[in-house]
């Protein structure tokens, strides 16, 4: 057992679905935080295509790790090429990607014509305003299927392939649900554990169950649905269910099945595979003669939930931390009047016990408010991840691996558990927030707000499927970049610079970041509103398409320029342990020294803080400082180390007598000095 952190392959995404009557603009909105440090962050435009009769569509294996797609056609001009690093280098160094070109798992008949769409790690939005978000889920039958071509695998489709096919072929959410569900039932579905099958490291208590299922948020111009799917008991088909989110409500999916009790007679709100009951009966997951109502989430979730490695003894609490706490903070943010309790841990026992499938927000949500949800790290709550000792003296929001595999504390019951898992992550690949706007023609109404890297430190920029109609390309800043080599022409890399530098002094830099976000995003909202009006005046003509494309380039240029300048401004203000400012006469002045806060020093104690008068262990004891400490080079003894981490959960209540901020339920309060 041991304290667990976030295995990038295990806890992926947070996805929101927002009905048209729950948004201030009237748009149907969905969002997707693709929380994955090894994933391909680039977006690409896939144009509409025509196909002759009797042709077939190749079905590629799902890979979202960088680079997500390697075939002989990867050099096609519509494919987003990496820069600075050769494909040969990528083949040999990319984690989770085969060292040779990908081969199709199989083929299905092609259709005469397809829609254009924006592609990422999954399909994002097409030219008809159909949109997707994604959240990997645990599944009781997650180990039953393998992709075709891998050992005895028989399943053809992963969720990314299904989403792309739906975007090519559908213009509404119901079509997408029925198409994806039907294909998966007929040809088989495998979960997000494909990399583990290929790498040979599949273990049931790690990736197998935890990544065996999937959920998609699906929006069109009028409706928004949740689609959940997992392998069936044969490994050759699929079990799936879909539920419509009421137009006036918000739903959030957090890495586990969300849909509970279903009523398939209510066709306006529910759809499911034909085998949804039969598989549960065959696998003895549900007894139709019993007194327990059919509950899809309770039946098809994994026995231990979407757990992290080494946490089996506290699976219920881990489930609450991993899943329900995020659901709680989203619902508490949009509907505080409902007064949900973030400490409740009984939602695992019944999908409808406490946190509902969806809630009606206290007021209609703006784009900026949805941005802020994806920037939530539990600020203003007892679970704030920046307020623990693990975050250091200045509130670093990053949570890495707490204990290495060889740590002597891995068998300690006191260490069995996990850090809080917030919506915002410092290692997010990208976040998308889509808008489907029925009152606008599709070529203008389809809009995606794209935020590379962490939402905490990025600025969301609008991308339009219609803006690439002339050139079949998006601005270079969104299409290029390699995880293996810094590229100043990549928007992702410029945000990455800000993220990694700002985290070191987070309690100081956050306010500056938020000011920059409000400036850039506010400007882009005004800019796009004016540009859309002009595009509509020009109409759906070559001139109109070109205008939208030029506006898209202006957006990219502005965002890149602002974030490059912001990084320089931030470094100029915060460096060398000092917050600098310019004096009235132009001279350099010190506004504040970034000294260690008193609560941090009190927590360490004078000896463990490394005061020089205590650094006499080697002389007095005849041993090195590291040996005297017993574990680590910072003066901690093993006992002190255990005590310190055990005390992390008490920091919020005990450190310096601090109380929750009074500036709002999600307001930020800097760590006092």
Automatic annotation (TrEMBL):
The chain crosses the membrane at residues 640-657. GO terms for molecular function: cysteine-type exopeptidase activity; dipeptidase activity. Keywords: Membrane, Transmembrane, Transmembrane helix. InterPro entries: Peptidase_C69. GO terms for biological process: proteolysis. The keyword Repeat does not apply. Belongs to the peptidase C69 family. Secernin subfamily. This is Dipeptidase. It comes from Triparma verrucosa.
């Amino acid at each position: 057992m041991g304290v667990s952190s976030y295995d990038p392959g295990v806890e992926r995404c947070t996805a929101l679905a927002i009905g048209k009557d729950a948004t201030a603009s009237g748009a149907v909105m969905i969002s997707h935080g693709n929380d994955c440090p090894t994933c391909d962050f680039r977006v690409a435009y896939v144009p509409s295509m025509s196909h002759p009769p009797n042709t077939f569509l190749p079905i590629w294996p799902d890979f979202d790790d960088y680079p997500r797609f390697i075939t002989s056609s990867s050099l096609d001009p519509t494919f987003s090429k990496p820069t600075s690093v050769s494909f040969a280098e990528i083949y040999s160094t990319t984690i989770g990607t085969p060292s040779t070109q990908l081969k199709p798992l199989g083929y299905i008949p092609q259709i005469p014509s397809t829609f254009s769409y924006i592609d990422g790690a999954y399909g994002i939005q097409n030219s008809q305003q159909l949109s997707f978000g994604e959240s990997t889920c645990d599944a009781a039958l997650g180990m039953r299927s393998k992709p075709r071509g891998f050992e005895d695998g028989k399943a053809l489709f992963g969720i990314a392939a299904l989403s792309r096919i739906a975007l090519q072929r559908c213009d509404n959410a119901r079509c997408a649900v029925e198409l994806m569900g039907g294909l998966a039932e007929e040809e088989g579905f495998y979960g997000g554990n494909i990399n583990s099958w290929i790498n040979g490291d599949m273990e049931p208590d790690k990736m197998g169950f935890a990544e065996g299922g999937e959920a998609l948020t699906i929006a069109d111009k009028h409706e928004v649905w949740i689609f959940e799917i997992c392998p069936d008991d044969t490994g050759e088909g699929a079990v799936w269910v879909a539920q419509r989110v009421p137009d006036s409500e918000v739903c959030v999916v957090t890495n586990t099945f969300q849909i509970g009790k279903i009523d398939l007679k209510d066709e306006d709100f529910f759809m499911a595979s034909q085998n949804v009951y039969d598989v549960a009966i065959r696998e003895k997951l549900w007894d139709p003669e019993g007194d327990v109502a059919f509950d899809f989430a309770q039946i098809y979730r994994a026995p231990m939930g979407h757990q992290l490695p080494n946490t089996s003894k506290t699976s219920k609490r881990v489930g609450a931390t991993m899943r329900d706490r995020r659901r709680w903070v989203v619902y508490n943010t949009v509907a505080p009047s409902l007064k949900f309790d973030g400490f409740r841990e009984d939602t695992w026992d019944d999908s409808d016990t406490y946190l509902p499938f969806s809630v009606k927000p206290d007021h209609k949500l703006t784009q900026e408010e949805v941005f802020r949800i994806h920037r939530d790290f539990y600020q203003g709550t007892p679970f704030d991840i920046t307020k623990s000792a693990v975050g250091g003296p200045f509130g670093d929001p990053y949570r890495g691996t707490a204990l290495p595999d060889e740590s002597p504390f891995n068998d300690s019951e006191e260490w069995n558990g996990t850090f809080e898992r917030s919506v915002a992550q410092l290692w997010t690949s990208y976040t998308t927030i889509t808008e489907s706007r029925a009152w606008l023609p599709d070529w203008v109404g389809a809009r995606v707000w794209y935020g590379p890297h962490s939402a905490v430190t990025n600025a969301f920029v609008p991308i339009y499927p219609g803006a690439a109609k002339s050139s079949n390309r998006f601005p270079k800043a969104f299409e290029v970049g390699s995880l293996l080599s810094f590229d100043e022409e990549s928007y992702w890399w410029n945000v990455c610079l800000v993220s990694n530098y700002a985290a070191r002094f987070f309690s100081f830099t956050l306010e500056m970041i938020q000011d920059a976000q409000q400036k850039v995003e506010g400007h882009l909202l005004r800019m796009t509103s004016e540009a859309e009006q002009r595009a509509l005046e020009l109409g759906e003509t070559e001139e109109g398409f070109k205008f939208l494309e030029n506006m898209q380039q202006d957006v990219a240029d502005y965002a890149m320029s602002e974030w490059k300048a912001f990084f320089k401004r931030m470094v100029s203000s915060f460096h060398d342990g000092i917050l600098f400012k310019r004096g009235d006469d132009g001279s350099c002045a010190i506004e504040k020294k970034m000294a260690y806060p008193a609560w941090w020093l009190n927590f360490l104690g004078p000896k463990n803080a490394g005061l020089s008068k205590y650094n006499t262990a080697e002389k007095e004891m005849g041993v090195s400082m590291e040996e005297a400490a017993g574990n680590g080079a910072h003066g901690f003894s093993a006992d002190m180390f255990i005590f310190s981490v055990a005390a992390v959960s008490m920091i919020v209540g005990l450190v310096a007598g601090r109380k929750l901020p009074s500036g709002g339920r999600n307001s930020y309060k800097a760590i006092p000095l």
